[in-house]
Amino acid sequence: MTINSCWTRSLIACLLIACAVAATLALILPNSTAKAVLAADKPADASTDAWDRQAAARYLDGREVYWQGWDRAQKDHGTLCVSCHTQATYGMARPALRHDLGEQGPSPAELVMLASIQKRVSMWKEMDPFYSDAQSGAGKEVESRNAESVLNAVILSSYDARQGHLTDTTRTAFDNAWALQSTSGPTTGAWVWQNFHYTPWESPESEYHGAALMAVAVAKAPDHYRDDPKIAANLAALAGYLSSHYEAQPLLNKVVALWASNWFPSVLTPAQRTQLLHTLYSLQRSDGGWSLTDLGTWKRVDDTPLETRPDGYATGLTVLVLEEIAASNSRPGLHAEEHVNRGIAWLVANQDKTTGAWPAWSLNKNRDTKTNVGKFMSDAATSYAVLALDQQKR
Hints:
The protein is an all-alpha fold. Helices cover 52% and strands 1% of the residues. It contains 14 helices and two strands; from the N terminus they run ααββαααααααααααα. The chain has helices spanning 6-28, 53-69, 84-93, 108-122, 133-136, 140-163, 168-180, 206-220, 232-244, 251-261, 270-283, 312-328, 337-349, 376-392; strands at residues 74-75, 79-80. The chain has a two-stranded antiparallel sheet with strand order 1-2. A hairpin with a 3-residue loop joins strand 1 and strand 2 (79-80). The longest helix is centred in the middle third of the chain and has 24 residues, at 140-163.
């Protein structure tokens, strides 16, 4: 979402400064009376249905404020790292809460995030990659640059989709990403992705996951962006990559591929689609949830056992994809209604009404979920749960 008028830019600048100051004070002066501005502190409307939108918004805003204040998220030119787990999913989900909460525009935390992304997009050639080869190892500059370009486009187009118009800044973000799309080798059609061996966002399989999210972002972008002849070759290469690499993916990636196939049918053959749906239906637990443990062959680096309970990430994402495909009426034989309803019931029953979050656990280490790093999985889980629940009422 790009703000064009001078007076609006001035207003936003004031809000950004106020939010940044409040967030910084809250982080460095824990005993002070300063308080970071989150979603409006007001009681949940008793007439709403069983999940607490206000609590979800407070959780998401609070986690975004934490990310903005974390020293490791600070990047050049006064900008912020775009994280897959906290910022990318936040940018996809937070606008979905706007209408039901009666908000007139983005929250202060969103405005800080958007200002940072817009600055990095508009100054793309002057911005440093998030990671350098010298400090993080060979190839990390290319990896982080590629991944950032995609995530910038995903986040900005999410906001534009709600506004119904693709802004010039978002077009530039897409252009930046297309310029980095691989044109040769095994990643042709995709992007060399950031890899620190942290599943599911910064690992070898994340390359496919990011490419599939890019396809969804393009498909949902307003102003018929996906029909632009200038990107026809890019989309053909992207769909070709998703199709040719599909069989080697963990189930988690196949779910996102199913999502992309809603607009790009060539990604999956009818047989692949039928088999995937059958597998997903069979993996739904008796309580209606899905578990990330079942959506791949994972192994923690600390050799601790994986958490096998259903979680908000797997359940939210799976329900969202099934809902959107069913809503399109373009894929006969989905038979998803019963599974979606049970998944929705699980999501409603498993929101922590105190924190507003949905549970999820690290696939990499046995992390304490009360710590900030341990909450990264819940950040993404809460975002996908919000998107699935919001889709239900459409």
